[in-house]
Design a protein that fits this description.
The protein has helices at 26-33, 89-96, 106-119, 125-131, 143-156; strands at residues 5-11, 14-20, 52-55, 58-61, 74-76. With 157 residues, the chain is an alpha+beta fold. The chain folds into 2 domains: 5-80, Beta-grasp domain (Ubiquitin-like (UB roll)); 89-156, Orthogonal Bundle (DNA polymerase, domain 1), CATH 1.10.150.120. The chain starts with a strand and ends with a helix. The model has no long low-confidence stretch (mean pLDDT 96).
C-alpha cells in the first residue's frame, strides 16, 4: 500500500480532512473513501462528463484530477446541490422536463449546468448547448436537458 497523504479541502461547504493515496483519482476518493456515490463513473478518460464536480466553481471531470490535488480547494458535488429536502431549481426542472432516464449522466449535467448558471444566469440556448457539450447522454437526447436548464434560468432570474 502506498503512503497516504493528508488532504484538507472543503466539500459542499463542509471542511474535510481525508487520507488518500497519491495515485487515487478524486472520483475514487469521493466514491470509495468518502462514500459520496452521487458522482458517477463513466469513461474514466474525461470524455463523458458523468463524474463532473465543481472545483472552485469550475466544472472538472473528477476522474482526471488526483485526490491530493483537492488540497486547499472548494469542491461541490451533486450531494450538495439540494438544500436539505428542498431540491435545487435545476433538479426540479430536470424532473419536470423528464430530462433523465438511467441517471448515470444526470449528476454531471446538473453540476455543469450549475456552473453555467452561476457564471451566466440568463444563458441563451446556444450557450447552454456549448457549456454542456462535455457531458454525454445515451438515453434521453439533449433537448429536454437544454429546456430544463433554460427553464431553471428563467425561474431563478
Amino acid at each position: 500500500m502506498a503512503k497516504r497523504t493528508l488532504v484538507e479541502t472543503v466539500i459542499n461547504n463542509e471542511p474535510v480532512e481525508l487520507l488518500c493515496e497519491p495515485r487515487q483519482s478524486l472520483l475514487e476518493v469521493l466514491r470509495d473513501e468518502l462514500h459520496m456515490t452521487g458522482t458517477k463513473e463513466g469513461c474514466l478518460t474525461g470524455d463523458c462528463g458523468a463524474c463532473t464536480i465543481l472545483v472552485d466553481g469550475r466544472p472538472v471531470c473528477s476522474c482526471l484530477m488526483l485526490g491530493v490535488e483537492a488540497q486547499g480547494h472548494k469542491l461541490e458535488t451533486i450531494e450538495g446541490l439540494a438544500t436539505g429536502a428542498e431540491l435545487h431549481p435545476l433538479q426540479r426542472k430536470f424532473l419536470e422536463h423528464a430530462s433523465l432516464q438511467c441517471g448515470i449522466c444526470t449528476p454531471g449535467f446538473l453540476m455543469s449546468a450549475k456552473a453555467l448558471l452561476d457564471k451566466i444566469p440568463r444563458p441563451t440556448e446556444a450557450e447552454v448547448r456549448y457549456h454542456l457539450a462535455g457531458n454525454l447522454c445515451r438515453c434521453t437526447g439533449y433537448d429536454k436537458i437544454v429546456r430544463a436548464v433554460l427553464d431553471a434560468a428563467r425561474e431563478s432570474g
